[in-house]
Amino acid sequence: MQKLAQTLMWLMLGSLGITKEDLNWRGPKKEVAAGSSSAAIQLNHYPACPDPDRAMGLAPHTDSTLLTILHQSNTSGLQVLRDDGTRWVTVPPIRGGLVVHIGDLLHILSNGLCPSVVHRAVVNRDRNRISIAYLHGPPSNVRISPVQKLVGPSQPPLYRAVTWNEYLGTKAKHFNKALSSVRLCAAAPINGLVDAKDQNNNNNNAVKVG
Ligand SMILES: O=C(O)CCC(=O)C(=O)O
């Protein structure tokens, strides 16, 4: 799983022209190999719910990871919020398939070019559901900040440096405002990019499902 996550991350960063040489990862005392990782597994169980419209499995959120690789059992429940924030799209389970979510740390590392995905889990009237999330991140004390190569006079760094540890604390405190709380500029300097999370979090439950 670690290899898969690292390969996917390098493919994504590679598509932005970023190589290992461009990542300058530092721990508290010394340099750390670019792309080295730590991880956790999260097991989710959603019991069947007789009135699913009145319950939420997992509230809308983004992950605090670089990437999350998710396996869902054969009951659907995962929904992602479209980029324009207008509706929820169900991600049906595919036998043998895995879902990959971009997390907030990759959002920060890519200076917003790889936006993290807002998602949630809804419950099912008749069936239990299980999902297993592989949470892939950097070593917990490495400072993650926008890659220098993606930053310039017309593309200022949008986020300050954070460690995974620190960001988890920020997430616990500010939840869906965590990404905005480490943001350096409120404006939208990159191609009109706005923090999707800022726009969407006001009323995430009010959008259409489809
Ligand atoms: O159960 C799911 O499909 C979503 C799980 C999830 O979002 C998470 O573990 O953060």
From TrEMBL:
Q: Which domain of life is it from?
A: Eukaryota
- What GO molecular functions are on record for this protein? metal ion binding; oxidoreductase activity
Cited Gene3D superfamilies: B-lactam Antibiotic, Isopenicillin N Synthase, Chain (2.60.120.330)
Is Acetylation among this UniProt entry's keywords? no
Signal peptide (from-to): 1-19
PROSITE patterns the record matches: FE2OG_OXY (PS51471)
Q: Which UniProt keywords apply?
A: Iron, Metal-binding, Oxidoreductase, Signal
Family named by the database record: Belongs to the iron/ascorbate-dependent oxidoreductase family.
The record's PANTHER family line, in alphabetical order, gives:
2-OXOGLUTARATE (2OG) AND FE(II)-DEPENDENT OXYGENASE SUPERFAMILY PROTEIN-RELATED
The protein's name: Fe2OG dioxygenase domain-containing protein
